[in-house]
Amino acid sequence: MSALVVIIALRSWPTDIYALTPGDATNVSSLVSVKGLATDPHRDRIDLVDVYLQSLSELQYLNLKFFGQHREFVGADQLLEPGVPSSQLLAQGYLEMSDSQTAAKVAALRALGWRVPATPAGAVVAAVVANTPASRAGVAVGDEITAIDGRRVTGLCSLLAAMVHVAVGARVALTVAPGHFSSAGVLTRSAPRTKVVTAASSPDAGSATGCAGIARSGPSWLGVSAEDGVDYAFPGDITLNTANIGGPSAGLAMTLTLIDALSRGSLTGGRAIATTGTIDPLGNVGAIGGVAEKTIAVENAGIHYFFVPRDNYAAAEAVAAKSLHVVGVSTLSQVLKDLRRLGGADPVPLTTPH
Hints:
With 354 residues, the chain is α+β, with helices and mostly antiparallel strands. It has two domains: 22-53 and 62-82 and 100-116 and 234-341, Ribosomal Protein S5, domain 2 (2-Layer Sandwich); 118-231, Roll (Pdz3 Domain), CATH 2.30.42.10. 27% of the residues lie in helices and 32% in strands. It has helices at residues 3-12, 58-67, 76-79, 89-111, 133-136, 156-163, 251-261, 291-300, 313-319, 332-341, and strands at residues 14-27, 32-35, 46-57, 72-75, 118-128, 144-148, 151-152, 171-177, 179-181, 187-189, 193-198, 200-201, 208-211, 214-216, 220-221, 224-232, 237-240, 273-275, 278-279, 285-286, 305-309, 325-329. The strands form seven sheets. A six-stranded mixed beta sheet has the order 4-1-3-18-21-22, with helices on both faces.
């Protein structure tokens, strides 16, 4: 085989390896739109940081392995659950971003003193295993299951409860609100419809569920992983335009930007900062992947303060230049205290919370 043929073969030979490389730092304030609540015209620079995720051929892998800088390799098994096809990666990333936006709004408003009522809504499909009842019925990432055989489903645990006594081979009527992702990653849902499936034998039958009152899973399954769907009653209309950005790691940056927009004064004391980390509605900051590559992206953006999840601190600090101050955090309240120590203002809401 000639050298040219070998190169062409390597170039086209796919792998199950992905590369994480430094992405961009993006000022979140330009992505925020608020209607119905007073906002501060002065906006601090609070950047989210992303990475590029690339599926590699053999040639691309070898090139990056021996000649690339600031890259991390991850296997498909680290990104996907067993049996879930890689074609779902994009939708999963957009679903994580959608969840992250919602959590950021809740955490920011609650930090400013707002009550944000929550209502259980259903079980949101996070992954669909190939060749299962759900995949054959066309159930997809982002769909929301609201009932099984007429029994209301309000979240993951009620989905498991509805399935625990379903026999293998039984026909099951799912009420599903189909999810749709735009080309930019915005999730919307259409009216619920019924999908009839035949329950299959579960590979995890009898495993612990972690749900109160349901010690073990039943004998059958649909072939989906799901999360709790929750509807929140927000004051005003808050929009975050994170077009073409997936994943949950912008949660902390979005939360801080919303607090800054809805309160008086400078949250960061006039300093440009970058952050990465998930956020939940209670304000807990969670670990993320690709932090070393994100640290390089922050340095490339010329920012000198980088707030990262505490569990990611060592990895960020290991590659950070001396000019970059890396701060490890675990909660939103801690971040706000750290910002006050840097000269930031204590956030005071412009609209009186209720």
